[in-house]
Amino acid sequence: MAAPAPAGAAGSPSPPPQLPSPFAELVKSPSGLEKVVLRGSRNCCVEVYLYGGQVTSWKNDNGEELLFLSTKAIFKPPKAIRGGIPICFPQFGTHGNLEQHGFARNRFWTIDNDPPPLPANPAIKAYVDLILRPSEEDLKIWPHSFEFRLRVALGPSGDLSLTSRIRNTNNDGRPFSYTFAYHTYFSVSDISEVRVEGLETMDYLDNLKAKERFTEQGDAIVFESEVDKVYLAAPSKIAIIDHEKKKTFVVTKEGLPDAVVWNPWDKKAKAMQDFGDGEYKNMLCVEPAAVEKPITLKPGEEWKGRLALSAVPSSYCSGQLDPLKVLQG
Ligand SMILES: O=P(O)(O)OC[C@H]1O[C@H](O)[C@H](O)[C@@H](O)[C@@H]1O
Predict the structure, then answer these.
(1) Domains of the chain, residue spans
(2) Distance 234 CA to ligand 1 centre (A)
(3) For 25, which of 96, 186, 213, 232 is 20 to 30 Å away at the CA?
(4) Quick count: other Cβ atoms within 10 Å of Cβ 266?
(5) Per UniProt, where does substrate bind (predicted)?
(6) What is the pLDDT of residue 13?
């Protein structure tokens, strides 16, 4: 009698990769692209596409979506998915010769089932580790060997964290430099009711004025027109206060000195094929980043950059929000 064919042999479907967390599941999305679904308590849930290593959804206990994803997003390579948290690497924006925002956001990442350990946090049960290594084609446009490990974790209170570890694996002794951003799209009720705190008095490069340097004046940042600024040496905590939704997002960043703030407003919105004309009203990008000073790694060196997001219902602070409490708490 013929021996049973091993799983994955021609003709038999290969078994889905096992994920180390029982709260993570690999599923196929309607577009045919694979995504990992992380489940937390009640309706808390995060979705991460292998395409781009991109988080596209983060829902709280009530199942309410906290990230913006365009209704016109295109889930087809080589287009990057419009919304969620695209990863900009090895280049942010046009700060170099590569395509805008580098290539990590439109490559297929794989599941990394045996990553080098990260500091243990037994409270985190739902997580996934992904890895990106350059292909032969990638090496032609950026001639450096690297390992980019990304852990996406959903904490017990619904917090979302992304930890990136980038290692130089060049074996020719050459260092490399890169810029980076977690291009986070937050879902907001109405952009003209949103305030960003933590960036006032900071210096920034204005992408709308040929990257000229200015100093932010006055109070919290509010939005009345297109904004595309790179805040330099921004604090490790930034708050996005959505008055209408009575919600405050707290963005915590580590290893990432800068913070980009972007809203395309009406004209640019119309010019983007994968973005609804009026959608600029319901989104704001606040992007922990390393832009002004590229990061340089020698062979064998590793860099770590972390983003942690939480959404606090601002009912307790509505109208009497003490931003310092949020930012320093
Ligand atoms: O359209 P994308 O390539 O995704 O870029 C969207 C935006 O990303 C960042 O926030 C940049 O600062 C903007 O200049 C850019 O327009």
Answers:
(1) 24-328
(2) 19
(3) 186
(4) 13
(5) 82, 100, 105
(6) 62
Is the ipTM reported for this complex over the cut 0.95?
yes
Q: Are 168 and 298 in contact (CB under 8 A)?
A: yes
Question: Does 231 contact ligand 1 (Cβ within 6 A)?
Answer: no
Provide the terminal-to-terminal Cα distance of the chain, rounded to the nearest Å.
68
List, for residues 134-191, the tens digit of each pLDDT value.
999 999 999 999 999 999 999 999 999 999 999 999 999 999 999 999 999 999 999 9
pLDDT, position 2: 42
Kind and range of the H or E run holding 323: helix 323-328
Query: Which whole number is the average pLDDT over 83-99?
Result: 96
Does residue 45 contact residue 57 with C-beta atoms inside 8 Å? yes
Using alpha carbons, select from 279, 284, 201 the residue that is nearest to residue 241. Answer: 284
The binding site for substrate comprises: 82, 100, 105
**Contact call for residues 164 and 149 (beta carbons, < 8 A):** yes
Q: 285 is written with which tokens?
A: 């990008």
Q: Can you read off the two tokens belonging to residue 215? A: 């100093």
pLDDT at site 219: 84
Going from the C-alpha of 224 to that of each of 85, 115, 185, 193, 266, the distances in angstroms are: 24, 44, 18, 10, 11
290 forms beta bridges with: 180
Q: Is the C-beta atom of 85 inside 6 A of ligand 1?
A: no
pTM above threshold 0.95: no
**Ligand 1, atom nearest to 262 Cα:** 10
The pLDDT value given to residue 326: 55
Element (H, E) at 327: helix 323-328
